[in-house]
Amino acid sequence: MLGNDARAYAPTPSHHDAPGKSAPTTARQKKPLIAVVDDDATIRRSLDRLLRAHGCDAITFGSGCEFLESVAAAPVALHCVVLDMQMPGLDGLEVQRRLRLLRCELPVIFLSARYNSRAREAALRGGALAYFTKPLLHDTAVFIHLIAGVAGDMGR
Predict the structure, then answer these.
(1) Which of 71, 90, 127, 150 is the most exposed place for a label (fewest CB within 10 A)?
(2) How far apart are CA 150 and CA 156, in angstroms?
(3) Alpha-carbon gap, residue 58 to 71, rounded angstroms
(4) What is the pLDDT of residue 77?
(5) Backbone Cα Rg of the chain
(6) Integer Cα distance of 14 and 17 in angstroms
(7) What are the φ and ψ backbone dihedral angles of 83, each rounded to 5 degrees?
(8) Are 108 and 99 in contact (CB under 8 A)?
(9) Which residues does residue 133 pair with via DSSP β-bridges, in sequence order?
(10) What is the DSSP string of 48-65?
(11) pLDDT digit of tens for each residue in the chain (156 aa)?
């Protein structure tokens, strides 16, 4: 887990983000920074709005590869990553596995369009905090509470 003055592995904004939108580069940010990795632009925008409405900053990525390249390239203090389970190229489980290989202890929350008990168990065994199905609808409060808890644990 990261301390208040620690730097996290983290991403630089993707070309999927709005022009001029950049992530803070220090661990002493005013708002928690959450990475959203999903191949669906609508989901990325929705989660970005949801997180911002609840006092977080968000940085979005359209693929697991794009996210991992950013994690390896530039330190930005992230509090958490929200990962889609099924994406072209690297799926969420593979992204989670590669984060661990990078010794990145970034908390992971999974989202999936379809419930899959095997994938859920694998994600949780791999250290994920939670596994939600899309759309969040009835789980939005739980999702936000989990994000707030992670942000609080990170010295918010």
Answers:
(1) 127
(2) 9
(3) 15
(4) 85
(5) 14
(6) 6
(7) -115, 130
(8) yes
(9) 112
(10) HHHHHHTT-EEEEESSHH
(11) 222 222 333 444 443 444 333 444 444 557 899 999 999 999 999 999 999 999 999 999 999 999 999 988 876 789 999 999 999 999 999 999 999 998 888 999 999 999 999 999 999 999 999 999 998 888 999 999 999 998 886 444
Q: Which two tokens stand for residue 126?
A: 């791999």
Mean pLDDT across the chain, nearest whole number?
82
How would you classify the pairing of strands 9-10 and 74-75? antiparallel
Q: Where are the beta strands (DSSP E) in the chain?
A: 9-10, 33-37, 57-61, 74-75, 80-84, 108-112, 130-133
Query: In the numeric block, which tokens belong to residue 135?
Result: 């759309």
**Which three-class secondary structure string do you get for 4-17?**
CCCCCEECCCCCCC
**Sign of CA pseudo-dihedral 126, 127, 133, 135:** negative
Sheet holding 33-37, edge to edge: 57-61, 33-37, 80-84, 108-112, 130-133
Structure tokens at 101: 């290989």
